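Re: that chain you flagged

S.,

Sorry for the slow reply, it's been a week of failed gels. I finally had a moment to sit down with the sequence you sent. For the record, here it is as I used it:
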Amino acid sequence: MNIWLLVLALLFPGAAAAQPPAGRAVAITFDDLPFAAVPADDNASLVGVTSRLLQHLQAEQVPAVGFVNEAKLYREGSLDPARVGLLRSWLQAGFELGNHTASHPSLNRVPLDAFEADLLQGETVTRPLMQSAGRTLRWFRHPFLHLGTTPEVRVAFQEFLAAHGYTAAPVTVNNSEWVFAVAYARAQAEGDTEAAQRIGAAYAPYMDAVFARAEQQALDLFGRPIPHVLVLHANALNADHFDALAAMLRQRGYRFIELADALQDSAYASTVGYSGFNGESWLELWSRQAGLRPSQQPPVPGFVTQWAGPAANRGY
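Prediction finished late last night. Pasting the structure tokens below so you have them in one place:
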């Protein structure tokens, strides 16, 4: 073994593990429940989006975890039963809910105690809902994929998560799906059916390039495929086009697995540090830990970015 392979083996124990079963696997997760992309006051449209998305997931036999921002359950300061009902729909359809904090703050930008308080506020509704469905609230997803800027904060927060029964849900396939979603919703709102169709048609090809990049990153680090964790959002784009995304993934050889099963892979035991770059996936963080420079994300088509407008630079 040359010195570079030895370094990789020490940093990333998964690189030396036995080959996994043939084929590719991915766990699907959705952030910003009960809805994302564009603020909506029309609960009927939110019910429609949720219903169509869940129907796609069931038809494609895709297990999924939806991560909740509980602040979105309130309207004019009061808990909205219709929006709580959207979360019940996920549970009734057989899916799992996780905590994404109440108000989506960044652990890189707010004090640890304030962030932890926001997390606890974000389980006020979700935990009882999970319990009523006979399930345990166990997953947490960092907003913006920000893990904290110092080792002390990261360690302290991991201890906090463990004390409250949470496991952090990583992301290996980060992407600009949300830019497509904002553009798609805006085209729909303006009644431009042709533009919405064009944006939707460009979504799966873009994600195909995203997965090609993630697959190469995994091979560079571990010398083998790993089960991926994909982050998406609960929005009209996925409500209308998740079937095309699922077809693309199956064409690439993927099967859909539970998040817990994906994390059994030894790759996820690899150390994750702070890179100083916003919103990077675990693959990108692992690459920087190994002294590698992650490749650029595939570009979003210009017409999609144009339709998204200033929101394309905001980030989730």
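What I noticed first: The chain has one domain: 3-313.

Talk soon,
D.
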